[in-house]
Amino acid sequence: MKTNRGRKYLNNELAIYSFISQFKYPKSYLGKIMLIAFLGTHIPLLTLFFYSVGATNLGWEVKFRILIIALIATLIGTAITLLTLQQLLLPINAVAKGLRKYLHNQKIPQLPTQYKDEVGVLMADTQYTIIKLDELIEQIQNYDSLTGLPNQQLFQLRLKQLIDESRKRGKTLAVIIINLDQVNNIKNLFGNDAGDEIIRDVAHKLEGCMTKNKILCRTNVSQFSIIYSHLVAVEKVEDFSRKILKILTEKWQVNNQDVYLGASLGIAIQPDNIDEIEYDSLQLVNQADVALNLAKEEGHSTYRFYSLEMNEKLKRRFQIERDLYYALEREELELFYQPQVDVITGNIQSAEALIRWKHHQEGFISPA
Known about the structure:
The protein is of the alpha+beta class. Helix content is 57%, strand content 17%. The chain is built from 11 helices and 10 strands. The protein has helices at 2-13, 15-21, 29-55, 60-105, 118-142, 152-169, 183-190, 192-207, 234-248, 281-297, 308-325, and strands spanning 174-180, 214-220, 223-228, 251-254, 257-260, 263-269, 302-305, 333-341, 348-359, 363-364. The strands form 3 sheets. Strands 2-3-1-6-7 form a 5-stranded mixed sheet, sandwiched between helices. A 3-stranded antiparallel sheet has the order 8-9-10, with no helix packed on it. Helix 10 (281-297) links the parallel strand 6 and strand 7 (302-305). The chain is elongated, with a radius of gyration of 39 Å. The two termini are 73 Å apart.
């Protein structure tokens, strides 16, 4: 109701503008103002002139000269008025161009803010609004709404920047991915709000461990990532990882009940020969993910470093798991009976039925 009333009021305020905009020409707002200014100055002046000339007894030659002089003076005055109007309208044009520049190119305009009249306030308010809008858009795009930490997008951007910087300065960095093991269970037991609350608490605790060479980000629902730049020794990463695990394995309160989160950490260190190989931020994150998966397999509340051997091991496991899906189709599973013999009498007491997998290329696959 208030919106409709406000719209009706605004339409009444813009009645003259709406009427003039119905005409095809002039198209620009500046042209509309100049047309009104021209008509507004010429019609009264010419009317007064023709009346005064017609009411006198001067000769036609004199009247004609007076008419020419009046027209020239009126045109000069109008031209000066229109040029001045055009200059006075430039701030409005600057506001319009600044808004379009930001909408199309996301570039913040530089509008003057020192003027105090209506147009000056318009420019200052527009500049302030665009800056705040840009900050809000950046916050939404680059920061996690739950914790306020940098999100996955900003994490990748910062990591790329720091890898480039480390390459130039001969420094090393590491990526640590932290997975909270019990977040989904907590949400299932206590609700999503409780899960969100504990994630905020974890983010607050982890932020307390950050120093100027570490950047904490929330990169997934139950996952945090840390960029550890200017790394001087692997032992520093290990000490830091143990500190993180100690914090995350403490008791946490959810609805006045004690819960234990548990966490797994995957760590990848930027290789020393980075200038000799093609290497990017995505590779480093993937390596940390590989290490994280191994840490999860080996048990809760542990950390693992990435290594080439680890990667080959996981590739091998993936290949075996993939081939196992087709083992039945290829009739590669065979039944064996393993007898259980009485060592005293030598008689077979029973037999254990075992399924063995005879791979079409690698032969029998060990149960291990």
